[in-house]
Write a structure and sequence with these properties.
The chain is mainly α and about 210 residues long. It has 12 helices and no strands. α2 packs across α4. It is elongated, with a radius of gyration of 19 Å.
Length: about 210
């Protein structure tokens, strides 16, 4: 598709030095413009697509459109792919009842990215400071049964959900720690200084200690 002058002008301001804060500032000036978002998305470029997500109209995010975005996201390299799908969840999908309902239906989606969103959203419900939803027991049973069979991007989100349950619900803490001990997931992961490890026993212990301070 041919780009409008507005889209071209925006693209001219985005380069490798552009930070997320810069994109948020541009998005704040635009506010919401779904057609412009789709133009920026059509470039196939990572940063314009991040900006596109910020200015999309969440009311227009149907399952069909999300499937198209999903297919496009898969064309990116691994770190960009995960950033885009997580960015879409945090900035759009979690903001509207209709798209929340869609996310809650993706537990067994054929798309691994949509399954990741299902689990990441369940984790997010806990770490945003709300009272934990009443489905922790059900989620843990599914994590215990499935996590070792899942693909890495979904595995991480399931692990993160188990961590958030263990952090915020003491009655499940030992069970969540046991998942990490049994699976050994991320046990040998090397993380940068001041970064929290993904290995459940360590992650939960660190975050619980922070909550106590």
């Amino acid at each position: 598709m041919g780009l409008s002058s507005q889209a071209k002008n925006i693209l001219a301001t985005i380069n490798t030095d552009t930070k997320l804060g810069d994109l948020r500032k541009i998005a704040g000036e635009i506010k919401k413009d779904h057609e412009l978002a789709l133009e920026l998305w059509s470039t196939g470029q990572f940063l314009p697509r991040q900006l596109a997500i910020l200015i999309m109209d969440k009311k227009q995010l149907s399952q069909k459109l999300i499937d198209n975005l999903d297919n496009d996201i898969r064309q990116h390299k691994e770190d960009e792919k995960l950033q885009l799908i997580d960015w879409l969840m945090a900035n759009q999908l979690s903001k509207d009842k209709k798209t929340i309902s869609l996310m809650e239906s993706w537990e067994n989606s054929q798309s691994s990215l949509q399954r990741r969103v299902f689990w990441y959203y369940q984790a997010r419900l806990r770490w945003v400071g709300q009272t934990p939803p009443p489905n922790s027991e059900e989620l843990l049973a599914k994590i215990e049964a499935r996590i070792e069979k899942e693909v890495p991007e979904v595995q991480w989100a399931m692990n993160f959900t188990a961590a958030q349950i263990g952090i915020f619900e003491e009655k499940y803490r030992s069970r969540c720690i046991a998942i990490g001990e049994r699976t050994g997931l991320y046990k040998d992961e090397i993380v940068a200084k001041n970064c929290t490890p993904n290995y459940l026993p360590k992650l939960i212990a660190i975050q619980v200690d922070k909550l106590k301070k």
